[in-house]
């Protein structure tokens, strides 16, 4: 299936263009979204296939690809790369493609879902940090060499998933839709760049296997989603597929804090945000972040921030 897009992804007279389509075949079915405006194309695919799905793919101009594999195992092969690269479920990476002439292969699955952003280099450049850590990627773009931001694919976090869902399923139209997509794309890039920097600033992470790092991000998502009912280290280790010793060691290597230290810092930060928003009172916030006793919450908050929860102003 071939799709032609207007130059620079900009359709004359439109703030943004949105195309939704479905496909049904004997071995494959799915729904697809093309969403584009000047400098940016968003593609979302949600598919089912009883066999591996191989698609010939060609892009004849340079793009930065921001790739999210939500529930799919995908292999990218192009003559612009030295070697093919793959993304597995719950992984992302950012690539520069001077061109793409090859294939994309999705492994057979009852649920394959990916979101891909194709961004013109001049649009992307305004977001790329000036830090030395990102210089090689910037140089490769300038010299039109295939490049990946990270040599290791990184896990998609819960905040990234929320942003992706918002982009794909929004009901906004026209100019408001474009503003929303640009804002959420900016936030996505922020989260990706921060995670990439965190990974590289912690040299211990480099000694861990990709699967071990993914387990720690999974553990983090579990604890951040269960403030009101935290599980024990043993239960958390079992849930992510490791043992208690490795959980404690690897979690601190990846995030620079113990499991419970990280949990407490996150609780306090979340509580502060809620209180400053004015949407909830101290008792409600305490209960939401797992404190059944408001007095205990107040003491913990004062120890962490040096002020009482009631002292916060909007």
Query: Secondary-structure element sequence?
Result: EEEEEEEEEEHHEEHHHHHHHH
What is the C-level CATH assignment of the largest domain? Mainly Beta
Note the total helix count.
10
Number of strands: 12
Structural class: alpha+beta
Q: What is Rg? A: 22 Å
What's the structural domain tally?
2
Low-confidence stretches: none
**What's the CATH superfamily of the largest domain, by name?**
Jelly Rolls
Separation of termini? Answer: 53 Å
What fraction of residues sit in β-strands?
25-35%
CATH topology of the largest domain: Jelly Rolls
Kindly report the average pLDDT value.
89
Tell me the helix content: 25-40%
Q: What is the molecular shape?
A: globular
Biggest sheet character: 8 strands, antiparallel
Question: Per CATH, which architecture of the largest domain?
Answer: Sandwich
Search tags:
about 325 residues; alpha+beta; Jelly Rolls; Arc Repressor Mutant, subunit A; 8-stranded antiparallel sheet; 10 helices; about 40% helix
Provide structural commentary:
With 314 residues, the chain is of the alpha+beta class. It has two domains: 7-201, Jelly Rolls; 209-311, Homeodomain-like (Arc Repressor Mutant, subunit A), CATH 1.10.10.60. The chain has ten helices and twelve strands. The chain has helices at 121-124, 135-142, 158-169, 174-201, 210-224, 233-240, 244-255, 259-277, 282-288, 294-305, and strands at residues 17-24, 28-37, 40-49, 53-59, 63-69, 74-78, 85-87, 91-97, 100-106, 109-119, 147-148, 154-155. Strands 1, 2, 3, 5, 8, 10, 11 and 12 form an eight-stranded antiparallel β-sheet that branches. α3 packs antiparallel against α4 (174-201) and α5 packs across α6.
């Amino acid at each position: 299936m071939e799709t032609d897009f207007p130059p620079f992804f900009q359709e004359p007279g439109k703030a943004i263009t949105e195309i939704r389509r479905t496909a049904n075949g004997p071995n494959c079915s799915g729904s697809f979204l093309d969403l584009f405006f000047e400098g940016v194309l968003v593609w979302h695919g949600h598919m089912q296939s009883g066999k591996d799905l191989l698609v010939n793919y060609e892009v004849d101009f340079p793009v930065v690809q921001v790739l999210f594999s939500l529930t799919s195992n995908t292999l990218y092969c192009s003559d612009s790369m030295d070697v093919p690269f793959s993304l597995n479920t719950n992984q992302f990476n950012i690539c520069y493609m001077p061109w793409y002439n090859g294939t994309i292969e999705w492994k057979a699955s009852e649920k394959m879902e990916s979101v891909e952003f194709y961004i013109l280099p001049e649009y992307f450049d305004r977001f790329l940090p000036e830090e030395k850590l990102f210089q090689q990627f910037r140089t490769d773009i300038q010299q039109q060499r295939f490049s990946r931001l990270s040599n290791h694919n990184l896990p998609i976090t819960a905040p990234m998933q929320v942003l992706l869902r918002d982009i794909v399923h929004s009901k906004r139209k026209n100019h408001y839709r474009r503003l929303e997509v640009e804002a959420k794309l900016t936030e996505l890039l922020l989260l990706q760049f921060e995670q990439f920097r965190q990974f590289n600033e912690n040299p211990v992470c480099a000694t861990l296997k990709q699967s071990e790092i993914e387990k720690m991000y999974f553990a983090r998502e579990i604890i951040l989603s269960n403030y009101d009912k935290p599980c024990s280290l043993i239960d958390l280790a079992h849930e992510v597929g490791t043992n208690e010793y490795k959980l404690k060691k690897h979690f601190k290597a990846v995030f620079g804090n113990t499991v419970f230290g990280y949990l407490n810092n996150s609780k306090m930060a979340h509580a502060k945000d809620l209180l400053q928003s004015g949407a909830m009172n101290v008792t409600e916030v305490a209960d939401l972040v797992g404190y059944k006793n408001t007095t205990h919450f107040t003491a913990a908050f004062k120890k962490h921030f040096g002020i009482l929860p009631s002292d916060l102003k909007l």
